[in-house]
Amino acid sequence: MVRYLMKRLLMMVPTLLGITLVSFVIINLAPGGPIEQKIVQLRFSGAAGGNDMGVSEEVVEALKKQYGFDKPIHIRYGIWLKNIITFDFGESFSYEEPVTTVIAGRFPVSLQFGVISLIMTYLVCIPLGVFKAVKDGTKFDVSSSFALMVLYSIPPLILGILLRMFLAGGAYLDLFPLSDLYSDNYFEMGLLDQVLDRIHHFILPLLCYMIGSFTVLTFLMKNSLLDEIRLDYVRTARAKGLEEKTVVYKHALRNALIPIVTGLSSFLMVFFAGSIIIEQIFNLDGMGLLGYRAALDRDYNVLMGLIFFQAVLALVGRLISDLLYLVIDPRIDFS
Q1: Is 124 in the same domain as 260?
Q2: Residue 145: inside a domain, yes or no?
Q3: Which residues contact 314 (CB under 8 A, 6 or more apart)?
Q4: Which of 65, 84, 106 is nearest to 301 (CA)?
Q5: Which residue has the higher pLDDT, 53 or 131?
Q6: Which of 153, 198, 297, 321 is spaced 20 to 30 Å from 232 by Cα?
Q7: Do 269 and 319 have their domain in common?
Q8: Is 92 among the domain residues?
Q9: What is the mean pLDDT of residues 57-73?
């Protein structure tokens, strides 16, 4: 087990290097970089120092040196690798702040929604999927499947608009706030009122965050348990006279949870969870909008910072997912 763990940790290094190298090359070779955008701004402002609103070579060279583009791409990548050892991801071209500061400012928003949506989804979907498997073919199973498929078919954009239209703003009902994370007088409230205010603002965007994975996880749990119930070892357990609850919940359920654990490989990604559409609709300044704006502005340092953190979390999450297999089924041997 220890040998397998060390092997996986060592394999993460070349994998992470490959991800960052490909990303760095693609991002830096994409047209319309920060220098080109700065040149356009100088042309419009007339402060470029060239003729006919052009840009002089001196200005272009100064910009390249300022943004670090005066060196070949492989040297720039080597410098970037050297800097990230000390967690120095450079400075954001757009925000003119260190990348870590920019990401840290949006981190709490995505963390809150990511963690809560993950916990709520698994707490609801796993019991619901198990119950649907036990009640397979009944009216409850059919009606709940229909409801889940209807919810799954609604795009997050449409769902967000519908929730705001019917439940917020007062056009129909005024049960929830239209946007933002908290009220204007949030910092004047007591602790309990602040918690309730946060929950009040969380409900609508949280529904949009959860709706996509809710149906998938429920059906995955149901179908996985149904597959296990049909296997020979379950028939043997029944033939021995074991109670149905013991057969389903003790024997079949443990093996049925293995595919669910596979989905947990991305559970660490909740720390950087973000949705451009949801954050735009509900005015949430999280990771989704940060990545979108960084891509539009060609803010290379921010993009590479986001890619690096997400890659590390994905690799570590996958390793933890494999280790969780041992908790569910001790017969699995990674040696």
Answers
A1: yes
A2: yes
A3: 265, 266, 268, 269
A4: 84
A5: 131
A6: 321
A7: yes
A8: no
A9: 78
Q: In whole angstroms, what is the distance from residue 273 CA to residue 288 CA?
A: 7
315: phi then psi, degrees, rounded to nearest 5: -70, -45
Q: Which 8-state DSSP code applies to residue 138?
A: S
Which pTM does this prediction carry? 0.78
C-alpha distances in angstroms, 209 versus 18, 119, 259, 267? 30, 12, 22, 14
Q: CA-based diameter of the chain, in Å?
A: 93
Based on the fold, state whether residues 321 and 289 are members of the same structural domain: yes
Half-sphere exposure of 142 (CA within 13 A, CB side): 3
Q: Is the pLDDT of residue 103 over 70?
A: yes
Tokens 């042309």 locate to 43
**Contacts from 97-101 at CB under 8 Å and sequence distance 24+?**
99/301, 99/302, 99/304, 99/305, 100/305
Q: How far is CA 131 from the centre of its chain?
A: 28
- Where residue 141 sits, what CATH number does that domain have? 1.10.3720.10
- Name the β-bridge partners of 49: 55
For residue 321, give the 3-state DSSP assignment. helix
Structure-token pair, residue 246 = 């013991």
Helix (H, G, I), strand (E, B) or coil at 170: coil
Output the six-digit token pair for 103. Answer: 């990401």
Structure tokens at 299: 């803010």
Q: Which domain holds residue 18?
A: 2-84
